[in-house]
Structure prediction request, 240 residues.
Amino acid sequence: MDVNGKVVLLTGGSAGIGRELARQLQAKGAHVILTGRDPERLAAMEADGFAVLAADLSNAAGVDALVAALGDRPIDILINNAGLGVPHDVRDALPDADAADGCLYANLSAPIRLITALLPRLRTRHEAAIINVTSGLAIAPNTASSVYCASKAGLRSYTMALRSQLAGEPIQVIEALPPMVDTQMTADRDTSKMPPQECARQIITALEGGRAEANVGMVKLLRAVYSLSPALARSVMRRF
Ligand SMILES: NC(=O)c1ccc[n+]([C@@H]2O[C@H](COP(=O)([O-])OP(=O)(O)OC[C@H]3O[C@@H](n4cnc5c(N)ncnc54)[C@H](OP(=O)(O)O)[C@@H]3O)[C@@H](O)[C@H]2O)c1
Prediction:
């Protein structure tokens, strides 16, 4: 797909990987409408020429408010990028169940609700795309982030089924699987991290190339290991 002139709705476009996706898509001539929660970050993106909408996607009312705020604007590309992690490890003090619900909603239910609401307008476009940002942890979970991993595995499964349902329609359905990327989400992780600019570049390359998956960086290797031995991939990922 040529993104020049396309209208993109990008959730979580005010920081991290989303902010880099916004910048690179804008540089290629796309019109980016991005969402986030933090007013200062949104104002900074607006000053850089982006259309911005405040949206809390951790519940259904927040998603519905975003759809209402969009009005009848046409959308060519929907990128479900907003997401968050929560620690959820029953070996520690019992985890916060409400925090788990919020994570599951934002990472899994919100993308499904947004796709459901916006599919009619995507179907009116000559060519369209839906990109769901999951994670390498959607392929095999680590130990400590059980709820986060479950949310991303759920979104991966949903994305595969949606791709089958939309086969034959001019809507690309792409799953983007980042590795560990250097953003606020991973600020407490002392390990090697990919710059968000490179992660965004690889996701956009997958979109432009019409690929079904953007296996970014080390996730390519994880995918290959998993296809040979799911048990080996799971045992490697348990340590992260
Ligand atoms: N970083 C990694 O290593 C990594 C690896 C694999 C997958 N991913 C996935 O990549 C995506 C982007 O992650 P990132 O690292 O760029 O994260 P980030 O730097 O923390 O940015 C997250 C973005 O999502 C928004 N957001 C978070 N929770 C939200 C909520 N409940 N409602 C609405 N907006 C919300 C944030 O807006 P505010 O700042 O205004 O809240 C921000 O714009 C996520 O889906 C994440 O799971 C990240």
Notes: The first helix runs from residue 16 to 27. The chain has one domain: 7-237.
